[in-house]
Automatic annotation (TrEMBL):
Keywords tagged on the record: Hydrolase, Metal-binding, Pyridine nucleotide biosynthesis
Name recorded for this polypeptide: Nicotinamidase
Limits of the Isochorismatase-like domain: 4-180
Protein family (similarity comment): Belongs to the isochorismatase family.
Amino acid sequence: MKKALIIVDVQNDFCEGGALAVPEANSIIPYINLLLEENQYDEIILTQDWHPANHKSFASNNGKNVGETITLNGGSQFMWPDHCVQGTFGAEFHKDLNRDKVTHIIQKGKNVEIDSYSGFQDNNHFVKTGLEDYLKYHDIQLVEIVGLALDYCVKFTAIDAFNAGFITCLHFNGTKAVNVKPDSARNTIYDLVEKGITILA
């Protein structure tokens, strides 16, 4: 069975000192590097938030405060601080992440009008990123997922992987949550297990 590791958004803005830092984000990087060292993957894929500066998920572009919610293109959109702007240091992958074996990079969130938490498609399910086609072209049957953040981009990437027909596993020690709400991490894990996704502790 061919398997892939999907490493979600391990970028400077989501790590310590970043514009949208996930608590304890840096602690998952050694774990991910160990997976890369000790396991044999047929494909290793990075996803990368890659927003234009005028992206409408940014509070600053809507005259809103971070944490507010607006309706955007018929969907609910949480207002984030500016982050992972194309071509900036914040959008770069963290220097400590071992990228020697990476086979493919998927950039997402490039459309000004629609956010894209999942590595597979935008939040409104209008446009796919090409990740599903890439995995199927390479005969991948099983995907393991790590990265940032558990309760947003990792969650929706895992759900979309499962829905696309891949056996889907999440490494609990390879992810951390934003925890906009206190129980967000715990609720996300319950939600993923309920859907049929395996949690590897």
